[in-house]
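Weekly structure sync, notes
Attendees: PL (lead), two postdocs, one rotation student
Agenda item 3: pending single-chain targets
PL asked that the sequence for the first pending target be pasted directly into the notes so everyone works from the same version. It is reproduced below exactly as submitted, 460 residues in total.
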Amino acid sequence: MALMYLVLVSMTTFLRPLFNGYLDCVGELLLFCIIAAIFDKELPLRRKGAVGIGLGVAGTFLIRRWYIFAVIGLTVSAIVYWVAKLISAAKNERIALAKNVLIVAVIICIAALLPLLIFFPGFVKRSLFGNFSSAYSAYNAYSHVEKWLNIGDLLGWAWLFASWVAVVFLIVFAYRNKDVLLGKNMRKDVLILIPASYIGGAIALLIFWRVQDLSPQHWYIVIPFIDIAVFLPIFLAIAVFPQKVARRLTQSLIGAAAIFGLLTGFTIIPTNVHVEKLIGFPVQTPYVQGDVGEKGKFTNYLYEQTGGKDLIYFAAASSNLNEGLPSSYSMLEGLNQSFSTTSANVDSRDGFNPAFFDAQYVVASSPVSIHMSPENEQVVVGLNTLVQDKSGYVGKHYTKKKTFYFDDNYEVYVYEKISPYTVDDVKAVEAYFDKIYPDDPDMYKNRFDNYISTMEKDKR
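Predicted structure, written out during the meeting:
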């Protein structure tokens, strides 16, 4: 048990989301509790407990919407697991077991769906019919082969290889020592759980990949399945290993590998990309910013100009420069400063934000500050260019107030609006983006038309 805990808490893949600032692990804790209850051998008899499981499922969905993919995978795993349990049960017990499992499953479904449909119908509707595969298409850039290989690279191929060796060992051991493997310390339902987790985890990934690739926080979708499918065979194999000396030696090697991976994960021990692919990629590498002082001047200047009230539009979307920079810097320094900022970063998700026309200040840069390819951030690129063109239908409304110098030779400009937009100017901007996205009126053309309609009403 101590070895199991050591290995699991040392996995850099599991720690990375938390140390990158994602607090989604709250939902993960709840998900682990649900999994423990779902695969409990007493589940068929716990009808009252099934209500709690259902509420827990609803809770994970409300904490982070994408946990629904983990729930889908868990549902598949549970079906595989309990069907296998029914098949392996004694003939005179199958009907009663099937009846109880079915009743509990219905209770879980009702307990999960009722509160969502009663109290959060809008959230459920958006989640089911929000067309997220289109909105997040820019985040889906890799082939399925690349995605599967990336799972191995980030988790560590050495751990996967050790797991597969352990599976082969367990199969051979089960064939030769069936009574021992299925005895007091090693029940057959645990062995059923391993393939069930592989299947459920694969289904969860395949469905999620229809929407986008895995970001660090999305690993919480598959971590429970990896814990069971990849690491459980290793611990089971060690537990039934017949030779005590060899078993202790294997335990020591596994523990040492986990500690080594943890130390390299925080770059305490330097390593290289080849070693990282074997034991898991780093949790976080040191991030040194030489422009913290300049960012402080930038933040303070924006506050002086706006008083925290005037709207600031960021035609920028990189991790180094985006609409969250002023607020995050102020919080880091303990400054009592608030900002009104807005932007539109990813074209397929955000479209065009008409608040651009209302912003008193616009932040632009050279080169343009983006976090994806220019093709996926045409709004950022386009507005960044148009604002800086003094003679254009956008640039003529602004004057450059201040320039700041960030790392990597970035020049950051603060523009102030000196004249209001006319209907013709807005139509010109509309025409610019209509050439790029003629087939997505809800995200572009209709928004311009609605804004123009508001402008014309205000004139009256």
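Discussion points:
- The radius of gyration is 27 Å.
- Strands lie at 311-314, 340-342, 361-366, 398-406, 410-417.
Action: rotation student to compare against the earlier draft before next sync.
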